[in-house]
Amino acid sequence: MLSHTTHPGNIGAAARAMKAMGLQHLYLVNPRHFPDAQASAMAAGADDVLQNAVVCASIDEALQGVVYTVGMTARLRDISIEMKTPREAMPLVLQQAATQPVALLFGTEMSGLTNEETGRSQLLVNIPANPDFSSLNLAAAVQVMAYELSVAAQSFVPSAQSLQPATHEQVEGYFAHLEKTLYEIGFFTTQNPARMMQRLRRLYARARLEPDEVNILRGILSVTTEYNGRLKTRFDEDQKHVQKH
């Protein structure tokens, strides 16, 4: 999955890298130029991957149905989302992909993933490189990840999984509900909303919520909102009573 790609040649080169390693599902989030002759030229025979590429207007649209998103980063960010090398991460990706959709998410060429995109990831991957020059070309990064996935697949043995993670849209629905509730109960009066939501996203990324757990948490939020509403109504009635006397 390539987000906000600037150069169409990188899309074509990424498609070629994917096909060489047996991958075919390419998603593009708001590419600046696509379709494009330069993309077709750089695909060098991977035209079918380009022709079947899914173009999406937003990261949330692209991640619909996905249960495990791996974000690529060249920066060793000061965040609590788990970070691994490609060699460490690919067996985990395969384990998830054995039963449900997963996504490898690559950011724009100039600045990589945004904070919003990082927040949509359950795992970050950093390709070890020269610390004085660690920035890889986008297509080169796709090639490295596709190769590591291919290597891991050669010795992969699926294991029984009892965990059935919630889909991207189920988790995002919960976060929207959580943020709305926190506003309603006044939690953000002493907190930075954007920063707090980012930290909460990291917490839940580690928890790997299941659908039933999402429903339980949203039920708690609904009861919290109702209870807060009753308290507010009671407070308003008490204030009216005091004013009368």
Describe the structure.
This protein has 245 residues and is α/β, with parallel strands linked by helices. It folds into 2 domains: 153 residues, Alpha/beta knot (3-Layer(aba) Sandwich), CATH 3.40.1280; 77 residues, Helicase, Ruva Protein, domain 3 (Orthogonal Bundle), CATH 1.10.8. It has 10 helices and 7 strands. Helix 1 runs parallel beside helix 2 and helix 5 packs across helix 7. It is elongated and about 80 Å long. The mean pLDDT is 90.
What would you call the structural class?
alpha/beta
* Rg measurement, Å: 22 Å
The CATH topology of the largest domain is: Alpha/beta knot
Helix content: 40-55%
Distance between the termini: 66 Å
Second rung of CATH, namely the architecture of the largest domain: 3-Layer(aba) Sandwich
How much is the average pLDDT?
90
Please report the total strand number as a whole number: 7
CATH class of the largest domain: Alpha Beta
Element pattern in H and E? EHEHHEHEEHEHEHHHH
